[in-house]
Amino acid sequence: MTTARHWFITGASRGLGRAFTEAALAAGDRVVAAARDVGPLTGPAEEHPDALLRLPLDVSDRDAVFAAVERAVEAVGHLDIVVNNAGGLLYGMVEEATERQVRDHFDVNFFGALWVTQAVIPHLRARRSGRVLQVTTMGTGGGMASVGYYGAGKAALDCVSEALAMEVEQFGIKVTVLQMGGYATELFTTGTTATAPDPAYQSLRARLAEMWGEDAGPDPATAAPLVMKLVDLPDPPRRLIVGSRSFDLVQEMHRARLEQYRAWEDLSRTAPG
């Protein structure tokens, strides 16, 4: 008989977090589902009364995060898999964003994941096991107009997570950065904070809208089987692109960037460093 694993998932009430929560429950695991609004999880909670603990949480509040993790451990005994999924989108040009918008964005997308990570590592280290999955984006390899702040926060999480992976591997903890492709979550609707548009960028906005089109991407549930396979791997990757189309796009971005580096190689080599 397989022993149920214990998950701690942030942003669990919608989108990818909801999909991962439902997949874990379907596998017979127990889930502590954290979100600012846990109301949308009423159905799963009624279906899995002994396996799902809903936990209201604002991940930008460090003290609340540490208290929530302690409550989770007390309730389920220990944690096996932690998924930092909570996040939002700050949509707008770099010039347009207010200080408050930028700070609020990073408080959730970067610092929120950092606080959860800091809170859970001592528990995983004590057991000398555990998985930490950091949900970022396929776009962290470079900035894109109008979503630069989103990419910046996720890129920062990428770097911290790779450092973390090196630090905690000695304790039997495995860290994987999930570089997500585009899925039909509510990131671009209820999950978006928009800047006040400056008319100077109107033509660029129009070009971006035409380039992106209206395809919202596949259902988040289609990413869940990959995550379930990932957590079963004894030696998982530190970075994983999630999505076939996204894999191709990332390869193309890296190819273009390498060509740019090579085009300016002579200038680069004029410095000795």
Structure description:
Strand 2 (30-35), helix 2 (42-47) and strand 3 (52-56) form a beta-alpha-beta unit. The chain is globular. The chain has helices spanning 15-26, 42-47, 62-76, 99-127, 148-168, 202-212, 224-230, 244-263, 265-268, and strands at 6-10, 30-35, 52-56, 81-84, 89-91, 130-137, 173-180, 192-194, 239-242. It is of the alpha/beta class and 273 residues long. The chain starts with 5 loop residues before the first strand and ends in a 5-residue tail after the last helix. It has nine helices and nine strands. The strands form two sheets. A seven-stranded parallel beta sheet has the order 3-2-1-4-6-7-9, with helices on both faces. The model has no long low-confidence stretch (mean pLDDT 95). Helix 3 packs parallel to helix 4 (99-127) and helix 4 runs parallel beside helix 5. Helices cover 46% and strands 17% of the residues. Belongs to the short-chain dehydrogenases/reductases (SDR) family. It comes from Streptomyces hygroscopicus. Keywords: Oxidoreductase. This is Short-chain dehydrogenase/reductase. InterPro entries: NAD(P)-bd_dom_sf, SDR_fam, SDR_oxidoreductase.
